[in-house]
Amino acid sequence: MNTAVIAQRETRSSVLPMVIIGLLFFIFGFVTWLNGALIPFLQTVCELSAFQAMLVASAFYIAYTVMALPMAAIIERTGYKAGMALGLALVGVGALIFIPAAYSRMFGIFLLAQFVVGSGLTILQTASNPYVVKLGSADTAAVRISVMGLLNKGAGIVAPLVFTALVLSGISGISDAELAALGTAAKEAKLDELASQLVLPYIGMAIFGVVLAVAMMFAPLPDIEDEVIEGQEEVAITLPVLMKFPQLVLGSIALFFYVGVEVIAGDAIGLLGKQAGVDAITASKLTSYTMTFMVVGYIAGIIAIPRFITQQTALLVSALLGILFTVLVMTGSMESTVMSASTLALFGLPEIPNAVYFVALLGLANAMCWPAIWPLALDGLGKFTSKGAALLIMGISGGAILPPLYGHFADTGDGQAAYVIAIPAYLFILYYALKGHKLRNWK
Q: Which of 27, 116, 207, 388 is deepest in the core (most CB within 10 A)?
């Protein structure tokens, strides 16, 4: 049988698994990017500072660090499919915890709910990303991950809009100025009313998560084994062994910085919008702007890789754009809306200040980082691939650390100038694109 026929059969056999995994990427994209609407919402409901509000992202993303290796151990025992089912069930449990959090308006319970949801997504990410990488040729892995990312970020466009429609529709008098004008009792009643709007949507999410967990157990997903490279047969998979792969370790650090700046661009854009005087409803939708530009970036990646550019080149361009747009965020106007007036307004979207617009454009810069870093970091790992994926997943903790750091600088100084913390992040990603991914030993 010739190579072309074999390749065609392999492509056909991977279509259904790609569809199923694509659904998963949409689901955890939806859950992840709800945070962009949830953060300004909880800042109002729980009366939080910018630093405290960004702890909503921290509680979610710290789960990736705490739970990545335990979840990888579970996947090693149960296989990819059962691990994905467990992840969906955990998301459902986390959604249920939002109910007592909403009724009590206790910020600590909201953070617990975020951690449990994040733990569910940890196992989904740990299982699904290497699964997608191994479903086909290594040279086109970034394209497959880009397709998944397109679904993930497409969900990111939808999630804030759904949140606004289900939670904020019909609720008036919730701007900071309107709430400040109320008496203590009236204000508490209004905040209780606002928080209670979370209950029904999260009950629905819990039911959906459990139903999908059961369905996943019966899904026609083939088992994929990690390839054993010569010389690896007798080597135990331990953290010290994984640390001997520079491309993996540096890739995890690159992901740490990437996720940190991605979360700041996606989740903190609403806070900068509020600082610029954007109304509460529009602020809750701003994550959709960032996700829209990310989708544009993913589509460009799918078209260009590897047809016109390599995975490494895509990462290089992403880093350079990230540096450029960050500088424009820091120097852009917080009053003028000329950028969005000439683009977004053409589609009927509300105009936003230029500085906020450039935050949204960071979505374009960030789009190809995740798809490019994964295959570059896992290249040559052989049987260490699944545990190496867990180390990469731990890099997602950047979403737990950098956003509160941004929140601290925003509270103590200027939310616009606080974006300076993204510059060193993009510089490291630039280093990884130029040199870090090529290293195969530390000498």
A: 388
